[in-house]
Every structure is written in C-alpha cells, then in structure tokens.
Amino acid sequence: MFHTQKTGRKRVVVSTEENVLASLDLRHGEIFWRHVLGPNDVIDGIDALGKYAVTLSSGGSILRAWNLPDGQMVWESSLQGPKHSKSLLLTNFKIEKDNVALVFSNGHLHAVSGIDGEVLWKKDFEAESLEVQKIIQPPGSDLVYVVGIGASSQFEVFQINARNGQLLKHESAPISGGLSGEVSLVSSETLGALDSTGSNLITISFHDGKISFQQTPISNLVEESYGPAVLVPSSVAGIFAIKVNAITIFIRVTGEGKLEVVEKITNETAVSDALSISEGQQAFALVQNAGSEIHLTVKMAHDWDVNLLKEHIRMDQPRGLVSKVFINNYVRTDRSHGFRALIVMEDHSLLLLQQGEIVWSREDGLASIIDVTTAELPVEKDGVSVAKVEHNLFEWLKGHLLKLKGTLMLASPEDIAAIQSIRLKSSEKSKMTRDHNGFRKLLIVLTSAKKLFALHTGDGRIVWSHLLQSLHKSEVCQQPIGLNLYQWQVPHHHAMDENPSVLVVGRCGPSLGAPGVLSFVDAYTGKELSSSSLVHSVAQVIPLPFTDSTEQRVHLLIDADQHAHLYPKTPEAIGIFQREFSNIYWYSVEDDNGIIKGHALKSKCTGEAVDEFCFDTRELWSIVFPSESEKIIATVTRKLNEVVHTQAKVIADHDVMYKYISRNALFVATVAPKASGEIGSVTPEESWLVAYVIDTVTGRILHRVTHHGSQGPVQAVFSENWVVYHYFNLRAHRYEMSVIEIYDQSRADNKDVLKLVLGKHNLTSPVSSYSRPEIITKSQSYFFPHSVKAIAVTSTAKGITSKQLLIGTIGDQVLALDKRFLDPRRSVNPTQAEKEEGIIPLTDSLPIIPQSYVTHALRVEGLRGIVTVPAKLESTTLFFAHGVDLFLTQLAPSRTFTQWKFPIPTSPPLHHNPSHSTPHFQLPPPSPPPPPLSSANLQELFHIAEVQLSTGSQSEQLAALQLLDRSLVPNPPSDPICPPELMRGIVSNLKNKAGVKAATKILLALCLAEGNRHVAVEAGAVGAVVEVVTELEGAAAERALAALELMCTVPEGAAEVRSHALAVPVMVSVMGRLAGRGREYAISVISVIYGGGCVRGVSGEEEEEEEEMVPAPPEEVARAVVLALQGECTARGRRKGAQLLKTLQEYGRLDLTQDGNEGF
Q1: Which residues of the chain have pLDDT under 50?
Q2: pTM, 2 dp
Q3: Same-domain status, 966 and 880
Q4: I need a labelling partner for 499 at 20 to 30 A (CA). Which of 44, 455, 460, 1131 fits?
Q5: Do both 559 and 689 map to the same domain?
Q6: What does pLDDT average to over the chain?
Q7: Domain extent for 653
Q8: 519 DSSP β-pair partners
C-alpha cells in the first residue's frame, strides 16, 4: 500500500509472510516503523482506509487501523464468529463522512467504521452454506454484491444495501461441473473462472440480478494446449489472465461477453492490480523474467496497445522469478505520468524499480532462516597482491581515488558515504581473513526461499548470497523445499589451498517420500560446485565422524523406506565406512504414532538396481508410548561437536563424581493426549508430563520422571551429562524448569587422584552401551517467570568454561542464566565447603537479573533459533539469534579470562576460577586495540615513565602505570629492552595496593620478551612476587604467578626462586587457595624448585640447569600437590603435577606406598 501524499515523506506499507507490518521509505527502503504480530496472528489483507492503514488478520477475526505517520494502532475491532470462512477486505466505500471497511469473515459480512472501529451492521450468511468468492461494490453505488458458491454447486449472488446491511435481492443458478480455484473480477458485474477440469473458461454475468454463464474451451483460444489451465490473480477491468503450458495468456472480455486473446507471453510473468491514474482510466504493470533482466511494462487497462512505460532492468544478482508486483504513479515535471514498481522476487527480496534502475533492495529472505552452520575464514597469506585481497583491481583503484578526493576536499556526499563504507570494510573486525582469537567467521544460513547467505560475524554484512538452482521449481521438482545445512568439507591440512564447502539437503515436496536433492556450495565464494537430484527420498541425514583424504565428511542418508545411502560415493568413503560398519547406530522418532525406534546396518541393498553405496537396515528395538496416555511433544540430544573437558566432578568433600557422558543419550518428553493443546485447555488432574532419558543404541530407559499436573509446550537442551527442560505447571499456574544430571557409578573405584595422575586407572578401558550402566541421577525443579521460545547452551573450544543457558523468552529477548542456578545439589543451607565449591543457596524460583539479558534493550523480533559457536579463545563463545531480526554478540560465561588484548603464543592463558566467580553480565565488545608503538616511541615512553616512577608523587606514579598499561599490554614489545630503573619502579609498585593491578599487567607483558626476564630478575621481581602473591586476589594473583613462571625460564630466575626461603610455603599456600590457571602456575614453580634437571618454559624450550636439586620436600608439600590435583586444575597443571610426583618417586624423595597406596 503506497502512501505518497504531497506533504511528508513518501512511504509504502507492506505486510509479510512472517506477520510483519512495516512502513518503508520509498527513497532508501529504510524502515520508518514496524509491528510484528504473533505467530498465530496471520495477516490476511491490508488496505488503505482514509488516513489509516487497516489490516485483517487471525482468519478474519481482527481488524486493526494503524496511523500512517508513526504506526500507532488507532483502534482494533474483533469480528469473531462460530464458522471459519474465507476472509475478504474491501475499503473503497464511504457513508457520509465515514470511510467504511467491508469485511467478510467467519460467515458474516461486517461494515466497520473507519473512525473508531465500531461494527455498524452485520449480515449473517451461516445458514447459506456459502463459500464467498468476491465482495463487489460498483463505483458510485450504495449496493454491495456478495458472490460465491453455495450448496450443490449453486452460484449465489446477494445484493445488499451497503448503508444498513439490508438484503435487497438473492439470485442463484447451478454451475454444471463446478468451478476450479479462485475467480477473477473482470468488471463490477462480470467474473472469470475455470471449470473443474481446467480446460474451459467460464464468464459469469449477473446484470440486474440475472445470472448467465458462457463457457469457452481453452483450445479455441490457444492452439496445442496441454494440461489444465491456471487462473492468474489480477483485478484489471475487462481483462483476466490464465497460464497454460508455461504461457501466460491475456484475454479481454467484450461488452457482448465474447473472449478475445490480446497477448501471449512465453516468459514467466507477474501482473499487478489495476491502479487508477485519472478519472475513468486505469493502468497495470506486467513484469517478465528474461534471463538476467526483467522487463517492466505499464499498460492502459482499456487500451492494451498503449504502453505508458517500457523498461529493461538488469538484475544485480540472480534472484529467481518475480513473485508479485505493485505499482504506484507520480506526476513528472512535464505533467506526464511516471511509475515506480515494487517487486517481490522468488528469493523473498524486495526491490523498488524507477526510471529503469533498481533504486534499492532489501534481503527480507533473512527473516525466514531455517538452518545455520559456520565456516572459518581464509588464512591470511603473505605475498598476496593487493588486487587479490580486494577481489578486484578496479575496486582497489577506485577506493584510492575516492580517498584522494576526500583528502583534497573534492568529495561529494555520495563519495563521502563510499569512503566511509570502504573504511568500515577495511577495519580489523571486518577483514576477510581469520583472526588470532577466532572471532571472525562466516555464518552460512539457509532461508525458506532456498537461498544461501554468508554473513560476516565482524559487522554482519552479506559476503555473498546464492539462490540454489538445484532447488528451483521445475517440471521434475514441482514443490522444492530446503531442509538442512551440513559442513561437507572443512580443510585443515590444506587450508591454504582448498576452500571449505557446505552440503544443502532438500527435497521435491513436503512428504517424506519425495525425492531428495543435494547441493554442494563453496563456503568462500557461494558458487554451487555440484548438485544431485536423487532417486531416493531423504528422511534423515546422519553426519558420521569420519573424513576421507580430501577432508570430505562422510554422511549417511536414510530414506523413507529405511535404506541407508552413503555419501560421498567414492571407493575411499566406502572403505572407511566398511571398517566402522558394525559401530553405526541411529534412531527415528514417529511423533504421530508415539514410537521411537533404534536402527543399525544390515547388508548391501538387494534389488534390481545394484548400488554398492546403498545398505539395508535392521530394527534393533522400539519403544511404543500408549496413545491413550502419552503423546511425544519434544525430543532433544547432545550436539555432535560438543567438547567435554573433563568427565570427573570434584564436590565439596573432595569426593569425585563421574559424569555419564554418552553421545547416544536422548531426552524425550511426553504429555497426556488431552494436555497436548494450549495451556489451560485441560485440568491439572487430567494432565501429566513424563520426561525420559533413553540410550539410543540399546533402547534402554536410563531415567524416567513424571510431573503430575503439568503440560507443554516443552523446550529442552541436552549438554554433557545434564538436560534442562521448560514446561507449565497447571497446579501452581506458573512455568517451571527442571534439571536432570546423570552420573556413572561404575567408575567409583577411580576416585584415587594418585592413580589418575600416574596413569594407573581403568578410565581407558572400553565402554559399551550394551553393558548395563550403573547410574544415579540428581534432579530439581524451579519456578521460572517467563514463557520460553528456545533454549541453548554456550559452547567453547575446549569445554573448560562454565556453562550458561541461553533462554529465548516470549518477549523476544535472550537471557543468559548461569548453569549453577540449575544445580540439583542446591540446598537451603549449604555448608561452608559447598559454598566454597560454588553451590548457590536454594530458592523456589530462578532469578531474572536485568543485566543478564545478552540482547540488552533490543528485541530479536519473531525469535526462532539460538546458535552458539566457539571462538579460539576458550573463555569466549559467539552467540547468534535469528528470527525476523538477526543478533550476534560475544559471550564470556566465566568472564574473559583468556581474552587478553595482546597475543600470547608462548604464554599460558589466564582465567578466573569459574566456581568462585559471580555471574558475568556481557558488555558490548571492546574497541579494537591500538596499533603497536614504534621503537623510538617506546624508548620515549620508557623514559617518561621511569622519571615519574622514580621521582613523582603517588598520583604521578599511578598515572605512569596507567600509561604503561594502555601502551604495552595491547601490544607487548620485544624490543627495546626495558631499562633496569624502570623495571625497579614497576617491581616496587607490586607492594602498592593502588598500583598492584596495573603493575602485574605490565610485568607480565614485559616478561613475554626473554630479554626483559633477565632485567626483571635483576630488579628483584622474583622476591617481590613471592612476598606479595599471598595478598593478591583473582586475576592479579594469576598474572603475578604467570610472570614468575616466565622468569623461572631463565637460569638466574630459577636460582632466585630456589634460594628464596618463602618460595615453598608461599607456593603451597597459593596452590591450595587458587584454582584453574593460578593453581597450574604454582605447581609449575614448585616443579622448578624441586624438579631439577631441565626447566621447560612456556614456549617449550629446554634449558639445562647446573644447580643441584634442593633437599627433598616435606611430606606435607607432596600431599598438597596431590590434594591440588584432586580439585579444579588445568590439563597442563595436571601434567606438571604428575611429572613432579613421578620424578620425586624415581629419585626416592617421595614414598607413594604409604597410606593405602600400595601397588604403585
């Protein structure tokens, strides 16, 4: 609906299939205002009503008026009725000064006032059994015609007084054979239609209430017409269109009712509705697809031979066929009529055409994403030409020319905008290469329009887009649909030479038995490498954990007949597959039948067609839920690529619980059949919800719990050994979230940490799903105040970081909830040991902290999915939410313990202890770090800081530390070496409470260079760290210990720490107090003190030491190391501790055969 009044900005109001109503600027396509209606509030029609825009939605039950300038809703009218029927909206009628909307819905015709939405009158058609086709209001008349098909194929015409709803006349006539599909309005008293066979045209006239039919065989109008015809929707006076054999035929209806073919168009054609351009004159638009061009023609309705406009527009990219076209006119300066056309393409993009050009375009297909995967960006190569990096030499030269014009102040506003765009694209976060932290990636998304997009995570721009030709509608594939995206080829060994690719799976129809379609797309360029139309269907896709020599991942496709098909179809793939043949299992869920089945491979397919890549399957087990008591409403399993850091969980009493980690675990939720409807549709006594955890290899039910008086919908997430699910409690009238954690009791003998660190345990023994598991479960339920649309969990590179639940609420925001709040071990009064472990006191409801919303004040309208992607930094994950809007940010569930602003390729990463940290609320990502200082600037900086630290006041010294922090920490220098006097000033501030935080940062940044480690040792940094580290907390303590470990990699540093009297007791104390990285560094320093031999630095270098080993440690030191290894410690810390214990045992310095440790 165009809104182009003389005053104000020109706009167009649009509605979408995602139930969005929006006002767009006609100049730039920007959104003025927007409303997203609910998923069940489908928009049936939109039109202008005076100064308002009106929408009819919810099956014709709700009529709303919206103020055009600001989008505020003016009024809402409910048009409820007992009978569902077709919804029609007519708004070109006026009673006195009131613009009236005529609405047919729910078996009634309503007249609604445009002033306040009041229903002026209502006419009931329920008793007529009428299927209404059109509401017709002749121009300048107070009459309204309601026409449709009644019982026994009777064509019914009702003549109604539009002012009061009085029925004036009712006529009916039988239609032999009935009608097919919709009817087309030719004039106020004539309709065009097709008979039930689609081979005859029927013109229906009802002049003066008399109904007459005229039937014309299509073969009389079109030679060699094969197959049924289809009526093309249009509302052009005197003309209607049909499509036969991909040919669009325009037919004029003369005054005598005769049919006359005016034009036949072989190209795909879209027709607009008629537009009134002057009194008694109407125009309409035809848009034809012709390869890479579209042809726009505007014709007069009463004179087909007159073309008001004829333009050829070259498309900027393949967008498929034109789906719809809407036109609007304006008056040029020479008083002639100009036209603009708004067209909707097959890929759901929206384009405005004017004066032979595309004025703007919108990729609204991104509002209907159905699947998401990721791809790493290319590795940055040395020696690549500038032209190749910029993709195009001309673009590179153009960019430099624009920058030159900007420097000389000769740039126009358009040039300035282009310069800003170039600068944005050349910024660090939007580079098209991988970054050190793994933040820059490509999000590959598949939309419901069968179009692929690659989105850059740095700035959200579209890198490429591709409309899949393999899923294009054709004679072979009439109803193509896209299903899923999978990573097909992910080069690791050949990352410099080969591009990754993705697999798109689709099928030719909505049924499971429809033939499948595969498409392989280059993830960097969007080029469709190959495609395949399958002879079999695709009911299930199973990515297998195997790759061939080209790093293509092996996939198993299961068809509707339960045959398995292997891809890629290569001898190498079949060889890999045969080796793992007996270890491949999968399951299938039949929601409607309430059956879950387990499957395995049997043998090669037997049949007429010999295919060595096809395999018969066998059913291993099945679980049938009684249809009278249970209905499956949700199933969820773990992510295939989820990384689990450790299988052991150390609890407060230093006991060890082993997580039941299985990729074959499936969570299933069922409800009572009566409770499968909307909330409140059943009483608590008639409803229940049952949660199952099932092993999909054996079909064994591992756990079952019943929630009486509860019902769905259920949203759930499965991670590691726990599952969290959300549902509604009818008894409490509140939503609830429950958690189930599963632990493996069969490993109870593996709780001795010495066995773990010395490798003498049975954790490497084979684990089989067929051995009956000894498991225990812990569960708990909590009230939750919101309805939930989606739940996901954060994922990181190594799985070390604590988990956060990402909960998409009914308000289209995403809440980050620490998993600790859903710990089933929470109690009302936790012990001191449990508090130290991080157990939160039990409350009946989960907290909603406003700062925990990762979307901040924004809403992801129409939220449908949440995706998390691990970055290279262990502390950070990328979070992507999609719906009508798209949202991406970085999350750090355990704070950014590894997200230093400088690269540490040879330094141990630091982090806070997640079990002792408070919940972290995500802030917007920090700004890019400053560029590194030059050597001359560094020398000047060192000199200024040295003067201030040696002679300045306390405030001046703090200012100097802050200056060094900002300058050195983002880009640690390797040259020049720090002056000794400056290093002494930094070391002295380690004992200054106000300056210790900055001093530890600076010391660690400087010690990354080996030359500075010698200077630091000479300045007394070793002794200073040993003396102050017990007073430091959190990150400051970890940084100080990391710097101390680096100083121990030089001979004088190792000697200094060995000779310090407090080094041993301080490191033992710190090792017991800290966790994670802090504990790792303390163990490493103790290894230097007692290990002897060589000292292995963080870079992996080995330096021979000539000092003799110090005397053997007291027994309590060894016990402290063992105790530390029982708690939370990194993998590197465990290796260091295990190496130390083995060395001490080898040299006879520690007796491990005491206290029940015999046998080592």
Answers
A1: 383-390, 753, 757-758, 899-929, 1093-1112, 1149, 1152-1160
A2: 0.74
A3: no
A4: 460
A5: no
A6: 82
A7: 627-754+771-784
A8: 504, 531
